[in-house]
Amino acid sequence: MKKVELEQVIAQINEKIGDANTLKQTIDNATATGKQVDELLKQLNTQKATIEDFVQKFTEINQSVGQSKVAVDEAAASAKEYQAKISEQEKQYTTLKEEVDQLKVRTDDLLSTADEQLGRVSSQVLANSFSSEVKKLEESVDNWFKWLLYSTGALLIVAISIVIYQIESEGTLIALNFLVKVVLTSPLVYLVTFVSSQYSREKKLLEEYRFKSTIALSFEAYRKLIREEITDMGITEEKKQERALDFIVNSVGNIYSSPMKNISDHGAKSDKEGDLPLSQIDKIVDIIRKVVIK
């Protein structure tokens, strides 16, 4: 019985030893698990520190991004403000340019009108100066015409009187005393010749000044016509100015030329009335043709 009890006790002890071994194994497993847990905790702590550092950096980056966004927004607002100012300045510039263009057009019109009026006034003043000479010459021509009538009448009266007296006293015109009497009338003949020459000269001067007065009045129209003709030719502005200047210089030179010289130059052609103005017109036509075709 004791043996049985002993075996039971041994069995119980073995069972207890087995339980102890199991417990030891469990404790060992638990210890190993604890080490793993500690290692895992260490890893978690390391990862936590890394995450916290990342979170901090992310926060800083986020703050920097926020600040950058604010700066970008401010820059965008400033850009919009500058764009609005630029647009306003562009509008002002456009308005100012339109006003300047309109002012330029009005100025060009005023300059053109002033130039035209100045040309007309200059032509009128020049024509008036010639007209005053025309009036003086008209009076002089009238006076010389009266002198021509008087001297011619006196010569005719004296000649007729001599003829009548010679016939009544001698009965014939073929006599020496008749020739002597005829010679005595030579002063009257000279007077008639002189008065006729002066009358013809003054009349030619009158026609010359009348023509100059007419040309002076039409000078502005000629100048405008030349400018239009030159403009239609499609040449450079410098060439236009040169040709217009040539016309003006030549025309003014003809207007201011000496009337006596013109009469002398056209003496052979001035016997017929109207030859002098026609020759001057031909001269101006030639000048215009040279200026336009040059």
Compact summary:
By secondary structure, this protein is an all-alpha fold.
Provide an overview of this structure:
The radius of gyration is 65 Å and the shape is rod-shaped. Helix 1 packs antiparallel against helix 3 (186-232) and helix 3 packs antiparallel against helix 4. It is mostly helical and 294 residues long. It has six helices and no strands. It is 92% helix and 0% strand. The chain has a domain at 94-293. It has helices at 2-170, 176-184, 186-232, 237-255, 259-265, 275-293.
The total beta strand count reads 0
The amount of beta strand, in percent, is under 5%
The run of helices and strands is: HHHHHH
Q: What portion of residues is helical?
A: over 70%
Cα gyration radius (Å): 65 Å
Give the number of helices.
6
Tell me the span between the first and last alpha carbons: 165 Å
Uncertain spans, ≥5 residues at pLDDT below 50? Answer: 268-281, 287-294
Mean pLDDT: 70
Overall form: rod-shaped
Class of secondary structure makeup = mainly alpha
User: What is the makeup of the main sheet?
Assistant: none
